[in-house]
Amino acid sequence: MSRLGIPQLALIALVGVSGSGKSTFAARHFRATEVVSSDHCRGLVSDDPNDQSATKDAIDVLHYIAGKRLAAGRLTVVDATNVQREGRAQLVALAREHDVLPVAIVLDMPEGLCLRRNAERPDRDFGAHVLRRQRADLHKSLRHLEKEGFRRVHVLRSPEEVAETVLVREPLLNDRRADTGPFDVIGDVHGCRAELEQLLAELGYLVERDAEGRPVGAAHPRGRRALFVGDLVDRGPDTPGVLRLVMGMVAAGTAMCVCGNHEQKLVRALRGKKVTVAHGLAESLAQLSAESAEFRKLAEQFCYDLVSHYVLDGGKLVVAHAGLPERFQGRASGRVRSFALYGESTGETDEYGLPVRYPWANDYRGAAAVVYGHTPVLDAEWVNNTICLDTGCVFGGRLTALRYPEGELVSVAAQQVWCEPVRPLQPVNPVRPDDELNLTDVLGKRVVETAEHGRITVRAENAAAALEVMSRFAIEPGSLLYLPPTMAPTATSQRADVLEHPEEAFAGYLAAGVREVICEEKHMGSRAVLLVRRDGGAVHTRTGRAFFDQRLTDQVLARLQAAISAAGLWSELATDWLLLDAELLPWSAKAEPLIREQYAAVGAAASAALPAALDMLRAAADRGVDVTDLLQRNESRVNNADAFRAAYRRYCWPTDGLRGMRVAPFQVLASEGRTYHDRPHSWHLDLLNRLSTADPEFVATTDNLLVDTGNPDSVAAGVRWWSELTEDGGEGMVVKPMANLVRGKRGVVQPGVKVRGREYLRIIYGPDYTEPANLDRLRKRNLGTKRSLALREYMLGIEGLRRLTSGEPLWRVHECVFAVLALESEPVDPRL
Amino acid sequence: MTLTTTARPATDLGFLLHKHPQRARAFEVSAGTAHVFYPRADEQECTVALLLEVDPIALGERVSDRPYAASSLLAVALGSVFRTAMNGQCEQRPELAETAIPLRVHIPAVGGAQLVHRLFEPLGWQVAATPLPLDTEFEQWGDSPYVDLRLTGELRVADALSHLYVLLPVLDGSKHYWVDHTEVDKLLRVGAGWLAAHPERELISRRYLAHQSGFVRTALARLAESDEVAPQEWDTPEEDPAKPVPLARSRRQAVLEVLRETGAKRVVELGCGPGALLRDLVRDKQFTELLGVDVSVRALQLARERLPEQVELRQSALTYRDSSLTGYDAAVLMEVIEHVDEERLPALERSVFGSARPATVVVTTPNQEYNARYETLVTGRFRHADHRFEWTRAQFAHWADSVAAQYGYTVSYLPVGEPDPVLGPPTQLAVFTRQEGR
Predict the structure, then answer these.
(1) A602 in contact with B at a CB cutoff of 8 Å?
(2) Rounded distance, CA A611 to CA A607, Å?
(3) In Å, what is the CA distance from B312 to each residue of A431, A460, A465?
(4) Which has the higher per-residue pLDDT, A128 or A753?
(5) Are residues B201 and B251 in the same domain?
(6) The CATH fold of domain A524-586+661-701
(7) Could you give the dihedral angle defined by the CA atoms of residues B304, B308, B314 and B319, in that order, rounded to the nearest 10 degrees?
(8) Cα A102 off chain centre by
(9) Are residues B174 and B256 in the same domain?
C-alpha cells in the first residue's frame, strides 16, 4: 500500500488520457461533491457529456464551480484530461487566485488498457489517434508539472499502483487549529537576547543554559508555550543568542515561531544569494560569523523552515509577522506569504522615506484575533480584533507579550537603545472611532448575528435611510452605543370606551408564562440615552441626534456625574462610565416645534371652526331646520377638541437651560464590562432612585407597582393604579416582566408593553377618536408587525451592548446600533 | 364656510344654488359628508352654510387639520354640491345668475395667511383676515398658519364659487389630492374669465396643479417622525438645477475650470445632490469617468433622472470609509462641508484626504463674511437651513491649511462670484493638490 499525502485544502488536477481511470479514481478517493468533472459540465451545458463542441462552455462552468468551492475553503478535484499545458495553467491560476495549493495526480496508464476501456464504453467512439495524441501531450508535460506551479505531483503508472494508493489528507503547515494553547505571543525581538530572557522570566518561564551559561531553552511550569511573531534576528546585540534560545524552545516544543521578513532575508544571505546588506543584517552576519559553521547551518535551516503564519485555537487566533487579512488566513500561496512577512504598502512613502503601510487592520472584520508585529509602535493596542506587539525593543522601546487567551499584556523595557530608529516610535495609528467604520459595515442588505435571538435581517432600503440619518444627524459613533427599541402597545381592548386597557397587558404576560410584572409610570417626555463618563459623555435622541447643544449637554452631564458620584455608583459598579435609558421632560423641551406645527395648529383650527359651525347650526335649528344629529355631533366634537388641547398642553412647560427640565432614568443599560438586562427592574429602579435622592430637582423617579398576573386582586390593583394615572390625562404605564429579559415557550417575551391613557391617545389618534364609531374602526389595528419589530430592535440593542461590554471592535457595536435605526424606518403604523 | 347675500329677495340664493332654504341636506363626498343648510333665510339676508364632516379615521395615520381647516377637500365638496351654480346655470332665475350681487363669505379657519389678500383682492373682494393664535395658553408660540377669513364683494354667485373652488387648494399649504391630469383642463374651465388676468396666475396654477400623489411616508420620513421631527425638516433638497441661480452657476463654472486645468480624467463628486455639476462635467470630453455619490437617496433619484447613463451614481457617506472612492484623479466637494457637523469633519477629512486620496480635491463653501451683503438674511443666520456652520475666509484657510499639512497636500484658494472689496467673494474655493512622494 502506498500513501500519498495531499493538502486538506487544495485544487487537485487529475491528469490522464481518456480511459485512464480518472473518474473511478476520483470516486474512490473523494466525496462526489468534491469532484468537478468536465464530462459532467459538458452535460450541464449541452445535455451530452461527450459533446466536444461544448467543451469551452463546459470548462467555463467547471472553473466557476471550482472557484466557488475554493473561495469557500473546500478541497476541489478537477476531473478532466488536463493533458494540455494551457488547460493546466488555468487551473494553477485558479488555485493561486484563491490562495490554495495546486496539486497534480497523474494517471499514466498503459495505452492498451485505455483503448480497451474506451472501447467498452458505447459513448466513447473516438479513434485510437485521439488517444495517441493525448498520450503524446501527457508525456510531453510530465517533466514540467512542478515548473508549471503544481506544488505536489504524484504519478501513478499502473493499475496495480492505482489500486494500492491510499490518499492521506494532511493539514496545511499553518493549520494548528487543534492547538488551543495557552500561549504567550511575543513581539519582534531583533537580537535583544537579554530582554527576551527577562520577558520569559516575567512570564514565568524557566530558562535552561548550556555549559557556557548561554540560554538554550525555556519551559513554563504550567505548560504554556511561547509564540514568536518573527523578526528574531538583525539590528540587536545578540542575534545568535536569541536564535539559540528560540531554536531550543521550538525543538523542545515549548515555543512556536512564524517567519519574519528579517529571517527570510537572513536565509538568503546565509545561502550566498545576493542581498542588500541593510536594516541590521550586517550585525547578524557579523555575530553569526563568530559562531560555528554547524550553528550557522542549524540557524539557516531553522529560519528556512519557518512558516508564514499559524491559525490556532479552533481558528480563533492567527499569528503572522505583518498581520493577515481574513481572506488569506489558513491559505497557502506566494502572496499569502508575502503579506504575512511584509504586509502591503500603499506605494507612498512617509516623510522619513519609509513605505506607508496599507492600514489593513482598519479594514479587518474577521472573527479571528490577529496578533502580529513588524511595525514598531509606541503601545500595543487592539484595533478591530488585531494587535501589533512590536513595541520597538531594539529601538529602546519595550519587548511585549500577549497572554492568550487571557488577553493580558506583559512587557519589559529595553536595556538601551540598540539601534537608532529611522522614525520615532508612533502610536499604532492615529485611529479614531470613525477610522474603523467602513461603509460596507452598514450599507446594503445585512444580516446581524445575535447571540440571543439568531439572525436579524436589515433590508437595503432601510439601511439607506439609516445611513442618511446616521451621517447627517447622529453624534460620533464612538459615543453612540445604543438606540432604544420601539415598544408595542398592549393588545387592543374590547371595552366600549377605550383602545388600550391594562387587563390585556396582564393577561398577555400571564399567557406567556410571566406572573411577576412591574408597572412603570410612563413619563411623557422624549426618550434620551445618557452616556455618562466620569469626564464627558453624550445625551442623544432615539435616532442618535445630540439632544442639546454642547453647552447644555455639558450641564446635563455635570449634574448626572455629580449625582452618580454622590450615590457612589462609580465604585459600586466598578466603572468609569454608565449608559442609561431615560426619558427627558418636558416633552416640549425637544418636541416643541412639532407640538406647535402639528398639534397646536390642529387645535387652533378646531377651536375656530367648530364653534363657528355650532353657531350656524343653532341658528338653523332656531329657524326650524332639522339639524339635530349634526348639531349633537358638532357639540361633541367641540368637547373633543378641548380635550385634545388639554392633552398636549399637559406635556408642555417652558424651560430655560436646565431650569424646568428633568430626566427620568429607568434602566441601566451597561457599564464597564457588563450589561444589566439580567437584573430585575426593581434593581434598576432602586439603583436609579439613588440618583434622584442625590439630585431630586433634576432626576425624577419612576413610580411603579408590582402585579401578579395570576392573582385577580393584584390585577385589579394594577388596573386601579393605571386608572388613577390616566384619569386626569397621564400618559399611562409600561408593563414589563419583573425579571427583565425573559424567555417563554416561544422565545423571548416582549420586554414591555405600553398601556396608554384614554386622553393621552387623543394626541395620537386625533380629537374625535373616542367617538364610538371611530373607536370601533380603530380597534381593528394590527399589532403583529409592531410587536415583531419591538422584539427585534430589543434583541439588537442587547446584542450591541454585549459586544460593547465584551470589548469587541466599534464596527461590531455600530452594526447593531445602525440596524436598530434601519429597522425604525420600516413601515409600521406610527400611532402604535 | 358660509355664503351670505343681502340682495333682495335674499332667499333667491336658494334658487341660485339649487338648494332649498328650509331644508338641511347631506351629500356623500369622497372625504366624508357635506352638509348644506341655511342659518338665516329671509327677505333681507340669506346665508347658506356648507359644512364638511371629514372622516378623521379615513385620513390616515397622523393627526390632521383637515377636519377643521378649509382645504382642498372643502373645494372638492363645494365643486360637487354646487356644481350647477358654479357653472352659472339657473333656470328659474337666469337673469339673477348673470347679475353681480352683494356677497359675503366667511371661512373660520383657512391656511395661507400671507396669500389671501394677494389672491382675492384682484378678483374684486374686500378681504379681512384675522390671524388665529396657535394656543392662547402659550402666547409665546405666536400665530397659527390659519386665519379667520371674511370676503365681501359684489359678484356673480358663480364667480364667487369658482374663486373659492380654485383658490382654496391654493391656500392649502399641505399636499393635496389632485392626481388626475384632467385637472389642467378643469382649472382652465373653472378659471375661465378671471384666471388669465389674475396677477398671481402663475402662483395659482403652480400650487393648484402641484400634483402630489398623496403623502408617501418614505423611510426617511418615518425616522424623522420616530424622533419627533417634522419630516420636511430633514428633507432639505439642494438647489434645483431647473431653477438656475447665478451664484450656483459661477460656482460650477469655477469648479469646472479648476478640474480642466488639472487634466483630471476620472472625477468623483462627493455630495453630488441632484447632479447639477455632473451635468456640466458630462458635456466635457476630458472627463472619461464620472461618479457622483450622495448620502440622500432622494437626491440620487433626482440626479439619475437628469443625468446620462455613463455617469455612475451611488449612495455613500463621507463619515464612513468607502474604499470604492479610491483611484480617482479628482474629487469635488461643492457646498458640502458646511452640511457636516464640525465635530464630524475629521471623519470626512480622513475619508477624503486619507482614504480616497485623489491627486486633486476641490472644496467650495460659503464665505460667511459676505452674508452681510444679503439683505434678506437675518444677521447670524445661515444661508441654508441645513448648514451647520459658515466660515470666514480666515476660518476656511485655517481648516484647509491644517488638513493639507496633515494629509500631505498643498492648497491654493480662488474666489467664486463677484467679490466685495472688503467682504470677499460670496463663495470660497480651495484646491488641494497631493504632494507626490509623500
Answers:
(1) yes
(2) 7
(3) 31, 19, 20
(4) A753
(5) no
(6) D-amino Acid Aminotransferase; Chain A, domain 1 (3.30.470)
(7) -90
(8) 32
(9) no
Residue whose grid cell is 468609569 = A576
Say if A439 is an interface residue toward chain B (CB within 8 Å). Answer: yes
A-chain residues near B41 (CB < 8 A): 623
Residue A243 identity (one-letter amino acid): L
Q: Is A115 on the interface with B (CB under 8 A)?
A: no
Partner-chain contact B438 A348, CB within 8 Å: yes
Which whole number is the average pLDDT over A447-469?
91
Q: Report yes or no: B79 and B118 within 8 Å, Cβ to Cβ.
A: no
State the average pLDDT over residues A647-671. Answer: 93
Instruction: State the ipTM, two decimals.
Output: 0.86
A426 phi/psi in degrees, rounded to 5 = -125, 160
Helix (H) or strand (E) holding B72: helix B72-81
Q: What is the pLDDT of residue B438?
A: 47
Fold of A2-170: Rossmann fold (3.40.50)
The percentage of residues in chain A with a pLDDT greater than 90, rounded to a whole number, is 81
For domain A175-431, the CATH architecture is 4-Layer Sandwich (3.60)
Chain A closest CA to B398's CA: distance in Å?
Answer: 21
Q: Do B322 and A439 touch (CB under 8 A)?
A: yes
Q: How is residue B353 written as a grid cell?
A: 484626504
Check if the beta carbon of residue B370 is closer than 8 Å to that of residue B341.
Answer: no
What is the per-residue pLDDT across B291-316, written as a single tens digit (0 to 9) for each?
999 999 888 988 998 999 999 999 99
What lies within 8 Å, CB to CB, of A589 at 6+ separation is A525, A526, A655, A661
pLDDT of the residue at A606: 93
Q: Pick from B178, B208, B238: which residue ends a domain?
A: B208
- Between chain A and chain B, the number of residue pairs with CB atoms below 8 A apart is 235
> Is B238 a member of any domain?
no
Q: Does A640 touch chain B (CB under 8 A)?
A: no
Facing residue for B56 by CB, picked from A439, A613, A768: A768
- CA of B422 to nearest chain A CA: how many angstroms apart? 33
A814 touches chain B (CB under 8 A): no
Q: Clarify whether residues B175 and B250 are in a common domain.
A: no
Q: Which of A346, A441, A468, A543 to mutate to test the interface with B (most CBs of B within 10 A)?
A: A468
Compare all CA atoms of chain A with the CA of B231 and give the residue at the minimum distance: A594
Range of the domain at B319: 246-434
Q: Does A486 touch chain B (CB under 8 A)?
A: yes
* Residue B286 and residue B346 in one domain: yes
Beta strands in A728-776 (DSSP E): 732-737, 743-744, 747-748, 753-756
Q: Are A640 and A762 in contact (CB under 8 A)?
A: yes
Q: DSSP label at A96?
A: H
Q: Do residues B163 and B256 share a domain? A: no
Please answer yes or no on whether B222 and A620 come within 8 Å at the CB atom: no
**Is the CB of residue A100 less than 8 Å from the CB of residue A9?**
yes
State whether B132 and A609 contact (CB < 8 Å). Answer: no
Q: Running DSSP on this structure, what letter comes out for residue B323?
A: G
B89 and B30 in one domain? yes
Which residue out of A432, A446, A472, A480 would a mutagenesis test of the B interface target, given it has the greatest number of B Cβ atoms within 10 Å? A472
Say yes or no to pLDDT of A484 above 50.
Answer: yes
Residues of chain B with pLDDT under 50: 175-179, 211-217, 239-243, 438
Q: Is A465 close to B220, i.e. CB distance below 8 A? A: yes
Residues B286 and B366 in one domain: yes
* Same domain? B147 vs B33: yes
**How many domains are contained in chain B?**
2
Q: What is the pLDDT of residue B226?
A: 76
Q: Terminal CA-to-CA distance of chain B, rounded, Å?
A: 75
A:14-53 residues touching chain B, CB 8 A cutoff: none
Check if the beta carbon of residue A399 is closer than 8 Å to that of residue A411.
yes
CA B192 vs CA A245, A356, B197: distances in Å: 102, 74, 10
CB < 8 Å to B227, chain A: 541-543, 545
